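Can't attach files on this board, so I'm pasting raw text. These are the components:
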Amino acid sequence: MKARVTVTLKTGVLDPQGKAIEGALKSLGVSGVASVRQGKVFDIELDAGDQAKAEATLKAAAEKLLANTVIENYRIEVVG
Amino acid sequence: MKARVTVTLKTGVLDPQGKAIEGALKSLGVSGVASVRQGKVFDIELDAGDQAKAEATLKAAAEKLLANTVIENYRIEVVG
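---
Top answer:
Structure tokens for the assembled complex are below.
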């Protein structure tokens, strides 16, 4: 079973890396970009066969390791 | 206009960071994870009003800066 966990910064949390990308895009001549925020994505392959078990595993992984829930949101998608 | 660019490693490219996450999940007692591959996600706000122009800007950004097309794939989604 395949799944994707997307981790993004919460609104209001400063993102210096995103700001740097904005600046770099401007320097490279890519115009029309108002703002950039960077996040992480984890493509996970699971042994679990059923959806409920897969979601429980992914939630544990996200809470324990993949996301810092103080400053980050995470979203779980089971692709199938 | 909002958009998301997702950058992932091409198949066959080694992902030591993903391997490290796999190991860490095992140590933390999260079982049932067969493999992990890490990628990046960019949430981009655009000035452009029309879809075609937005997609052209995003393609330029991805090709020039966000993705290393030798080892990475990118996917553009205009969220609206």
